[in-house]
């Protein structure tokens, strides 16, 4: 698996309002692209992904029967890696073949001066959890607990 | 919230009668103004809770409630294990046993005024706070399991505090029934370097001055007087609790599907209390409570060390430690009898009235202290449980202001630097890792905590005793 060459700005993601927490959403022409986009949205809750240099990597493997649950597992795996490896990520590569999701996330050790991380993400939730198609567009989203 | 959906019971109490799949009514406490400010989702979520199996009496909403996931934050519900009652990971939340503790200092504002900046700087240096912060205590698997069973008691055995602290913590600082085997290795790994850390978001350590006493007699019992300096800590079970929430939320969603428990929302995922999954979650959740109690105890030790640098003979006894985001087994009055129930308090505080056996002897006459955290630049409050609270909401009260505005909206409204500056002009020193984090936690992004506390007091959920004003706030 190679590091994703697309610039961060080529992905389309957004955050959306939730009273206590925050929603993250990624769009793509494929499920993989939507997954990468929502991963960038996740990072954007903590810091600007453009501030994170993709210098080292972690690998993540998830297995589940549904797209929704794979998304839940993928985001929670990223959250776990960030917490335990003390990292932030800015580049991703994913390979999705139900029920398997294999991926890599590239980033660097959290540097509080450089990244000024705003808030910790505790976990992805089932609130607004959706990973599927709307017309030709793939959407991956959920509310994350912060 | 749309008031036309509600039936007025009294000036401080409203209800949504049981209808559709609801097994019990929803009871909402608060003034008309407070309830109007609540988002509509609170009514929807509380009604969903009312439809869960085994729920007893009502699904309660505290005056600080807002839209959560599954349960509203500020939601209270008790379940009867003998009536197929359930336990819900979403009803406890990710930040298991997040709570507040307050320490007395014996100091007055004039004592800290000359060293206020230095005190703020040293607290910020010594308390690991914010994303990516790690504590100095690293636990191996064996010690982790001991901590999960022992809670604050374990922390004190390691030298982080005094034996007498335990008297002032719910459950004597050690939640029985914790099962480290029910906690995943992932959760333990996530916690390994996070003991004694504050976290981020709305968590803080705050130096406060007692600004006003509302009940002199009870304040005296609590050893608080106008002008006293106190220190409050608001934080929880850190990565361990978050991972327990993640692990069990998914397992419960799948279990509910299998058992054909009808869930209006997936976040209401639950398991029968009597089931293997229910018992395992209880064991893990109780371990999470102990982790939070140990964490707050270690932070207490760090804060005492900082204060003793400036004031060598200071003792800083613990006033009290309360938890939110728990499910606890308690005896409650039902139909003239007494029954063991599993009480979920998500973003709500336990508030036992005077004389309750679980209140420390020397505070029995006062009632259980209820510590209400403010939001950085705003007041915090000390209340005590009332006798009426048992009947009103299984002895529960509010836990804080509750958000009034989303983080994204707060970011559009304010800049962290400006907030820090304006609070400094009012004599409140903020030390924070992230200016953006400060903007997201802007005082005005929360409801007016004074309104919330007044509503709880008027509803008799808890009795107002003292107001605390912030002087120094350490934010993650």
Automatic annotation (TrEMBL), chain A:
Keywords: Calcium, Metal-binding, tRNA processing
Domain of life: Bacteria
Domain Archease intervals: 13-146
Classification via Pfam families: Archease
InterPro entries linked: Archease (IPR002804), Archease_dom (IPR023572), Archease_dom_sf (IPR036820)
Transmembrane segments: none
GO BP: any one term: tRNA processing
Gene Ontology MF: a single term: metal ion binding
Keyword presence, S-adenosyl-L-methionine: no
Annotated family: Belongs to the archease family.
Full protein name: Archease family protein
Organism: Methylacidiphilum kamchatkense Kam1
Lineage: Bacteria, Pseudomonadati, Verrucomicrobiota, Methylacidiphilae, Methylacidiphilales
TrEMBL record, chain B:
Keyword annotations of the record: GTP-binding, Ligase, Manganese, Metal-binding, Nucleotide-binding, RNA repair
Active site annotation, chain numbering: 399 (gmp-histidine intermediate)
GO molecular function: GTP binding; metal ion binding; RNA ligase (ATP) activity; RNA ligase (GTP) activity
Cofactor(s) demanded: Mn(2+)
The keyword Metal-binding belongs to this UniProt entry's keyword annotation: yes
InterPro entries (UniProt xref): RtcB, RtcB-like_sf
Any one cellular-component term (Gene Ontology): tRNA-splicing ligase complex
Cross-referenced Pfam families: RtcB
Domain of life where this protein originates: Bacteria
Record: residues binding Mn(2+) 1: 95, 203
Tagged with keyword Nucleotide-binding: yes
Chain sites annotated for binding Mn(2+) 2: 234, 324
Cofactor note: Binds 2 manganese ions per subunit.
Binding residues annotated for GMP, in chain numbering: 202-206, 324-325, 373-376, 380, 399-402, 475
Enzyme class: ligase
The EC number(s) this enzyme carries: 6.5.1.-
Catalytic reaction list: a 3'-end 3'-phospho-ribonucleotide-RNA + a 5'-end dephospho-ribonucleoside-RNA + GTP = a ribonucleotidyl-ribonucleotide-RNA + GMP + diphosphate; a 3'-end 2',3'-cyclophospho-ribonucleotide-RNA + a 5'-end dephospho-ribonucleoside-RNA + GTP + H2O = a ribonucleotidyl-ribonucleotide-RNA + GMP + diphosphate + H(+)
Quaternary data: Monomer.
Similarity field: Belongs to the RtcB family.
Name assigned to this protein: tRNA-splicing ligase RtcB
Native organism: Methylacidiphilum kamchatkense Kam1
Record gene name: rtcB
